[in-house]
Amino acid sequence: MPPPPHLAVAQSNYQELSLYSHIPAARHPQILRVISGITGMLPETTLEHHLVYKPKRPRQPGQNAELYYLQLISIVPDEKKQEEEGEGEGGRGAGKNNKEEGGKGYDVKTQKWRTRLEDIPEVTRKPVTSRNVLGAGFGEGDALALVDSLGYMLQTAYFMTVSTLIHNNIIITLSQVLLPPPAPASADPVPGQQYGNPYPTSGLQPLDPARSWVLKAAVRVQSHQDVESINTGVNELKGFKELMRGMCDLEVAERLALDTRVR
């Protein structure tokens, strides 16, 4: 089904080569400083909102095509900036409307969303994880309604703080999954509550009680058939792995741990 005319879509399809490492909370500041030294740049840190969708219809017996989870991702605006804009646009009245829409100063429907559909990693002898990724960025319009019209329903929602740095062709991210505090049992349901509200951001808590982080080093290649670019990307990742040796162990992820198929 094509998107509505008012909802512009910019698609991208690429092969992602990657390595991963588990970073204990105590090592996170040191690792970030080391990578900043290697890249010669300060990290760009953002708070992302992730919505995970699954097809409404289960896979039928004998059906050959696999069904996959779909993600919607957006960047959460700075909380203080949102509060200032809310006050400027109508003071208390605007604040009330935002609360009715699902969260103080945060309206999930007006967020700029992008989709990410990930294939299960290939069965390969490459020294990196390799899989196909399809992405699309939406323009103006209701992306949530579009995903619903395509036959998907919300499975789970969470937030993620992500620090990003670039080393040659390698995109390096340090990420941590965050959850908002549960709503009080006696509270009345708020429209949009199922999507989660990041504000106040001070209330977000790591999903992992140990507060650990995930380091991901990834190279994007336009096509899995471009053997030369694939080899170049693999060698870049191997070189970065050597640079980080002694600080952390960058390894191929367990294939089934990255399985995005719906069972």
Number of domains: 1
Structural class: alpha+beta
Stretches where pLDDT is under 50 for at least 5 consecutive residues are 1-8, 92-103
Main pleated sheet = 8 strands, antiparallel, barrel
Helix amount, in percent?
10-25%
SS summary, helix count: 5
CATH topology: Hypothetical Protein Pfu-838710-001
Along the chain, the helix and strand elements come as EHEEHHEEHEEEEH
- What is the straight-line distance between the termini? 24 Å
Q: What is the global morphology?
A: globular
CATH class: Mainly Beta
What is the count of β-strands? 9
Defining key terms:
9 strands, Hypothetical Protein Pfu-838710-001, 263 residues, alpha+beta
Kindly describe this structure.
The protein has 263 residues and is α+β, with helices and mostly antiparallel strands. The protein has a single domain, classed as Hypothetical Protein Pfu-838710-001. Helix content is 22%, strand content 32%. It contains 5 helices and 9 strands, in the order βαββααββαββββα. It has an 8-stranded antiparallel barrel. The N terminus is likely disordered.
Question: What is the secondary structure topology, with strand pairs?
Answer:
Elements: E1 9-23, H1 28-39, E2 44-55, E3 70-75, H2 79-90, H3 92-100, E4 114-118, E5 129-138, H4 143-149, E6 152-167, E7 170-179, E8 205-206, E9 213-221, H5 227-243
